[in-house]
Amino acid sequence: MERAGPDHKQVVQHEFSQQAPQYAANPLISDPARIARLVRAVSPAPTARVLEVATGPGHVALGFAAVCREVVGIDLTAAPLALAERLRQERGLANARFALGDAEATGFADGAFDVVVCRYAFHHFADPPAVLREMTRVCRAGGTVALEDLVVSEQPARAAYQNRFEHLRDPSHTRAYPLSELLALLTANGLELEAVYSDALTQEVERWLANAHTLPERAAEARALIERDAREDLSGARPYRADGRLWFVQRTAALVGRKLAAPA
User: Fold this and answer.
1) pLDDT digits over 205-216, tens only?
2) How many domains does one find in the chain?
3) How far from the centroid of its chain's Cα atoms is residue 231's Cα?
4) Could you list the residue range(s) of the whole structural domain that residue 13 is in?
5) N or C terminus of the chain: which is more exposed, having fewer CB within 10 Å?
């Protein structure tokens, strides 16, 4: 898989400018039950101030806005933020706002938020550890940092196989982590694990490719890798055919951590 270079943020902006409408409308992304499960796992106080980094079309931010005092959603790309603002207005939520922002350097003060959350974006970051450090920095001591993302096999070769076809589909995909690495990142940032749960997203391959506007030659290579995976069980994504169509499963995990006070 190609490494994320210094211009990776431009790749992200390009991809999510063109994918924004499909991404926002994707029921796997907008599913209220999945969002409610994350909100329940975080269990924010009604007075909480919440930051969502890489908010995209704002579904998660608005889920928190329904139960919290104030929510800010930031994203690197303008197109999904416009959709988030439209959705906010449709729902009549005055306690949420959206702005352009970089997950690695948000510009907010230390400890400015009670809750900091990121969902389905970690695998798009060029430097995920830097993003988690920034999320932790802007969370107050005793506050909550929550992360939900794709997870891949704990076996390196199998993880690399899935990351390869994910990257072919969407060049902004850098690397999905195995769960053990996400847990280690939380620990390294002084976060006490409070909750973890797993889930799965079942993807129909042709729709998955179309939603990302994958170039034909890249789509053909990704499709061939998934078809081989269906025959040989190479990644853990467990591709299968049903109703004449090819499907596979993206495993996900949500981790909720409490920020420990710095030692005296």
Assistant:
1) 999 999 999 999
2) 1
3) 29
4) 8-150+174-201+253-259
5) C
